[in-house]
Amino acid sequence: MIETNNGVPRVCVCSEIGRLRTVLLHRPGVEITRMTPQNATQALYSDILNKNIVDREYANFCGVLERWTQVLYVEDVLASVLENHQMRQMLVSESCRLDGCDHLADELLSHPAPQLAKELIEGVERKNWSTNCNERYELKPLYNLFFTRDASSTVYNRVLINSMSFPVRRRETLIYKAIFENYFRCETINAEHFDPEARTEGGDVQIARDDMLCLGEGIRTNRHGIDYLAKEMGSRHGKFNIIVQQLPHKPESFIHLDMVFTFLSRHECMVFEPMLHKTGLFSGMDTTLITIDNGKTTYTSFGNILKALKATGWDMSPVICGGSDPWTQMREQWHSGANFFALGEGKVLGYSRNNATIEALDKAGYAVLNATDICNGKADMNNYEKFVAAFDACELPRGGGGARCMTMPVNRDALA
Hints:
Layout: E1 4-5, E2 8-9, E3 20-25, H1 51-66, E4 70-73, H2 74-81, H3 85-99, H4 105-109, H5 113-122, E5 124-125, E6 137-139, E7 152-155, E8 158-161, H6 170-182, E9 188-189, E10 205-209, E11 212-217, H7 223-236, E12 239-246, E13 261-263, E14 268-271, H8 273-277, E15 287-293, E16 296-302, H9 305-311, E17 317-320, H10 326-334, E18 341-344, E19 347-351, H11 355-363, E20 367-370, H12 371-375, E21 387-391, E22 408-412
Parallel strand pairs: 3-4, 8-9, 11-12, 14-17, 19-21, 20-21
Antiparallel strand pairs: 1-2, 3-22, 5-6, 7-8, 10-11, 12-15, 13-14, 15-16, 18-19
Helix pairs in contact: 2-5, 2-6, 3-6
């Protein structure tokens, strides 16, 4: 049963594995076709995507979720928010200010809400554009919006509007702030209000349980952002723990904690093995437990994230991304082999292309279900205590994220 406020789902996420009740998604739209080899790097991509194939792959991804939980889509919710005159004015003026196209504001404000929602996501083409001009779009397309995890994070009964590290993603936060404050009627927080240098992103924020976060510290989330979360959580809880795992700044496959570590169940997690053994690029990467107890903060170093979890009374068994072969581990981590999303305890969603990782889950007792069979009604997820819903994808992984990156949970059941 979904708890609601006047029919709108209540924001509440107290773990990574509670039974998922509502999730926010964004179908990759026209905006991804507006990327070129010339602007792909600026858009934080290493390559451009084939939308026809993306559409087929994403249909199986969201099809699994629609058979499990309530799915809301960003564009639809945004259109609803834009019916409010004050929010329309704010979103248009701020979007145009950030992209340096204030002259477009009056025209955009005259458009119906569904059209305006599309324009804020897909961008607005420069009038009389020619090939002599490098910038075709005055209002820039939000190329990364389908990674709904990054720009906002549900943290218990509030939403952290993330202070994004790259300007190309700053406009996404305007949309999520408007959505969560005006559609979901939820309190939002932002690390930048505490410290202009603070940076946080959703892939680095994992809710271990009601008294603990696991955070990644790397190129996207910095120490200032972590200090903010420690201060904020400590002020709301008598005792609170934060486990911080340092991440390499290169290559881009290590941009977030959820690219090397995700929760699968109460006692199982998916892990990239070099992070556990502190080998290769993870040599010298610290794992720190921050404990805030009635205003007193202590810092304790641990050999790895599993040892830090154990020190808080939580034993976790690792399932190794890429299986036992180090070469395969590197290949599969590159294409989000550790980036699983839990629909509930022991019920996870991820890419089928990572064969050795899927085999490792199979050996750990997870039934391997084909996403197409789920969408066609040939397989029923409710018949399995533990399963991995594996969906085929060759284009989506090239965007640089996996199932967790593409999902923004709004409501989960509390763990018993």
